[in-house]
Amino acid sequence: MLQDLHGFFYPRTVALIGATDKRDKPGTAILENLAHFHGAVYPVNPKHETLLGHRCYPSIMDVPEDIDLAIIALPAALVEQEIDAIHRKSIKRVILISSGFAEAGAKGMEMQKRIADKTEHYGIRVIGPNALGVYNTDNGLDSFFVSRERVSRPVPGRLSIISQSGAITVILMEALSRDGIGLAKAVNYGNRLDVDEADALDYLADDPQTGAVAMYMESVGNGRKFLKAAKAFCEKKPLVIWKAGKHEMGAAAVASHTATLAGTYGLYQAAFRQAGAIEAFGFDHMIDAAKAVALMEYPCIRGRLLIVTNGGGMAVAASDQAQLEGFTMPGMPEAVRARLQQAFPSFFVTSNPIDVTGSGRNEDYYTALTEALPHYDAAVVIVLMGSTTVTEEAAELIARACHEAKKPVTCCILQGLGYTREAMSALLKLGIPVYPSPERAVRALAALRKATCRSAGSE
Amino acid sequence: MLQDLHGFFYPRTVALIGATDKRDKPGTAILENLAHFHGAVYPVNPKHETLLGHRCYPSIMDVPEDIDLAIIALPAALVEQEIDAIHRKSIKRVILISSGFAEAGAKGMEMQKRIADKTEHYGIRVIGPNALGVYNTDNGLDSFFVSRERVSRPVPGRLSIISQSGAITVILMEALSRDGIGLAKAVNYGNRLDVDEADALDYLADDPQTGAVAMYMESVGNGRKFLKAAKAFCEKKPLVIWKAGKHEMGAAAVASHTATLAGTYGLYQAAFRQAGAIEAFGFDHMIDAAKAVALMEYPCIRGRLLIVTNGGGMAVAASDQAQLEGFTMPGMPEAVRARLQQAFPSFFVTSNPIDVTGSGRNEDYYTALTEALPHYDAAVVIVLMGSTTVTEEAAELIARACHEAKKPVTCCILQGLGYTREAMSALLKLGIPVYPSPERAVRALAALRKATCRSAGSE
Fold first, then answer.
1. Phi, psi of B153 (to 5 degrees)
2. Residue A394 has pLDDT above 80, yes or no
3. Quick one: how far is CA B299 from the chain centroid?
4. How many other C-beta atoms can be found within 10 angstroms of the C-beta atom of residue B117?
5. Which residues of chain B are modeled with pLDDT < 50?
6. Cβ of A343 under 8 Å from any chain B Cβ?
7. Residues 346..365 of B with a Cβ closer than 8 Å to A: which?
8. Which of A17, B256, B333, B435 gives B440 a disulfide partner, CB atoms 3.0 to 4.6 angstroms apart?
9. Closest chain A residue to B320 measured between Cα atoms?
10. Chain A (112-131) residues lying within 8 Å, Cβ to Cβ, of chain B
11. Chain A partners within 8 Å of B148 (Cβ)
12. Which among A175, A252, A323 has the least Cβ separation from residue B247?
């Protein structure tokens, strides 16, 4: 099983059936994206002799090499006969991009069923149909039919994505790119003719590049198989899951989207809890939690939270959220408070939250964290960049204090204009996840805590 | 009362006591910002003869003109005696920027009390202390001690801000600037020595530039007075309120921030409901709801929601949220469905949500909305810009369909890189609020509905 999936992510040779150069065609975008693949690419299309500098073959049978992975980007009606050719060519792995199957009504459902029977009979593993397929930063493999100008690819990193929806896959990748969060692998399995979310979890649990997974699902292929895979995965790495189609109206939308039954939300929640996964309750929450578990080096075993701010209102908002997330906020130990009072002007607030006010400088953040953080389990640091006394260099001092105390820290910087974005990038580069609101910074830290509790519990 | 506040927003002459040119001093930033004021500015500081091209006066008594508004940016200890001078000069309005009063402990509290007694005795109205004061896009008045390089000022527009916290005021303004949402007036009243949130609401209810208010509060000055003002305001205009310090930990943070009692959250919620205000549950929600009520031209009386998307997963997420917000999603009327099926390729989904898939073009959005929107009360339109078949011009077609049907529409475009931000700006310029996640687009539409229900109910 694991070997099967390895071939999807690490083929040596790839054939693209339905390669073309027509504008807006999937076969064009995929061929362009395969230019980044560190392996051999063989376009197949009887209408072309060459494509993008590759020799193009009339049929898959004409390709002179053994093919590890075939990507099919043909109209749905042409797929079934292509499967026979693929079998004759002894290809064992297919990414089926084409839509127009189960999601398109009864006729498509029948076609999908016939292909499923055929590939099972031939022993061919399939990702898709109605899917983007696979993206692997480790070897540049990219079967996504979205151009890099339209959807920029994240830098290599520790987070992997498993998604039932192509759209969600793409916007997650775009959000990661925007925030500079690194990606390991992404797989969008679409109609789940064969390879499902559990297979992907099993594979990524052992993938050395993957440090955490963000998963989007509308339905589950096989409940028992999924629970087993999720449990095993969470023993090793954090898993953030966003289940959509939770409520009646969402479930109705699922039916027309991935042609599956969304199922009873309560059962999913029970399974996520049992597995030890972190449930995300929407898109922002998903990306926020994934960022935290992918970036943070330090565990957050207990919940004694420190808040440091240069704007009191933001600390109030963070404190409200901290309570909702189950953190506690013990007061400042007297000895620490005395040292802070000595170091700071009298109008700084030296309780918890620490408020260095609009006069707080970069080094005041460092002082606050260095003195106080050892007495807490984690911190949320809020930096209002509108103050003239803080600069982008605050990032380095905040990260240094966090690393010296070996405690997890999330930051809140409003992602506004120009240099606020630079300050955000600087922190992210130093491994500190940054969020655009105090509530989201706290919520992300809470996700990290759930991830840590799980791995702590399993030791 | 109203006349009193009018003088804070529309003085003809302003004196800045504590004007200076030292880096990082409030008196420097304020004087720079007053350069944008369409009125006369008189800096006061015995140590300077001129400042920023203005003649500078040794004391307020030396200023040769009548002064409508004095802005005091002196250390707390010097303020009390200055009030006497202000009285001798017959000035009736003071913005007290200085911090170090009630928020800084018992001694500051006493000073604040003495100043309150004195100004009440003299009949001087005060905004502050520990406050940014007033920003008015109508005449350029700007008492905020944050430079325009650090916090850019929003363009003139319909939304006004009332905030107890300076930090929240500043990040709201920055978020509005970032998103291109126009601001009318902003007031941060800080320690609320005199002018409070109710006074501000009363004034802005009759301010012709203000179309809606976003309010941040940690505590209320006078409960009965506030409820009366909020009720009267909501009869005329939408009011979005974010109450922080809701829970025990947040309330503790309030005590050290604005030196007030946060009070029982349940009582606040009851008051908001009674007044007809829209409660925002955090920073993102506040800015999202404010954007919707400030921008949208059309009411959302009933809750029959249409969703149009080019990515199925996003529609599922939006549908989940729609249910939580109390919308309904009636199916597509058969006649409309037939017309959509005729206009669209067979693989587009013509139920509700309408899914034009990754192949959907700009004009398909227009077709979908033109055919279906007349049969619904509002729409959420999701545009994944990663598709090569949609461009920034989709904005114009979506806005046109919305205006033709005279129905409110919110959009979801992930605020990623480059041209996704351009598409977002294009929509905002056409009056369509745009949000970076499907959940937030739905939630903002729900805020609009609450605002509409209220004004519909009051007719």
1. -90, 135
2. yes
3. 20
4. 10
5. 1-2, 457-459
6. no
7. 346-347, 349, 351, 353, 355, 357-359
8. B435
9. A250
10. none
11. none
12. A323
Question: Contact B256/A353, CB-based, under 8 Å?
Answer: yes
DSSP per-residue letters across A296-338:
--S---S-BEEEEESSHHHHHHHHHHHHHTT-B-PPPPHHHHH
Q: What would the pLDDT profile of B13-50 be if each residue is shown by its tens digit?
A: 999 999 999 988 899 999 999 999 999 999 999 999 99
- Name every chain A residue with its beta carbon within 8 A of the beta carbon of B170: 311, 384, 386
Average pLDDT, chain A: 92
**Rounded Cα gap, residues B316 and B318, in angstroms:** 5
Q: Token pair of A409, please?
A: 């820290």
Cα–Cα distance between A69 and A59 in angstroms, integer? 15
Q: What is the pLDDT of residue A457?
A: 45
Dihedral sign from CA coordinates of B391, B393, B399, B405: negative
Interface of A with B in 189-248 (CB under 8 A): 216, 218, 244-248
Averaged pLDDT for residues A39-58:
97
- Does B416 contact chain A (CB < 8 Å)? yes
Instruction: Give the Å distances, CA to CA, from B249 to A352, B126, B217.
Output: 10, 31, 16
Handedness of CA B299, B303, B304, B305 (dihedral sign): positive
Contact B159, B180 (CB under 8 A): no
Interface of A with B in 149-168 (CB under 8 A): 150-152, 163-168
CB of A386 closer than 8 Å to CB of B33: no
Residues 6+ apart with CB under 8 A from A25: A73
**Is the confidence at residue A398, as pLDDT, over 80?**
yes
DSSP B57: B
Chain A CB within 8 Å of residue B303 CB = no
* pLDDT classification of A76: cutoffs 50, 70, 90: very high
Contact between A257 and B355 using a beta-carbon 8 Å cutoff: yes
Which among A258, A194, A270 has a CA at the least distance from the CA of A231?
A270
Q: Do B244 and A388 touch (CB under 8 A)?
A: no
CA separation, residue A363 to residues A344, A353, A398, A402 (Å): 11, 17, 9, 14
Task: Indicate the pTM of the whole model.
Answer: 0.92
Instruction: Taking residues A378-390, report their average pLDDT.
Output: 89
Checking DSSP bridges between strand B133-136 and strand B141-142, what pairing results, if any? antiparallel
Instruction: Say whether residue B106 is in contact with chain A using an 8 A CB cutoff.
Output: no
Q: How many CB atoms lie within 10 A of CB A90?
A: 10
Question: Which residues on chain A are in Cβ contact (under 8 Å) with B313?
Answer: 163-168, 216, 218, 244, 257
User: Rounded to an integer, what distance in angstroms lies between the CA atom of residue A50 and that of residue A83?
Assistant: 23
Which two structure tokens, joined as six digits, stand for B274? 């009674």
Would an 8 Å CB–CB cutoff place B380 in contact with chain A? no
Which runs of consecutive H residues, i.e. helices, occur in A35-105? 79-88
Task: Report whether A313 contacts B167 (CB < 8 A).
Answer: yes
| pLDDT for position B457 | 44
**A41 has which bridge partners?**
A14
B134 and B181 in contact (C-beta within 8 Å)? no
Distance (Å) from the alpha carbon of A90 to chain B's nearest alpha carbon: 32
Report the alpha-carbon distance of residue A361 to residue A77 in Å, rounded: 65
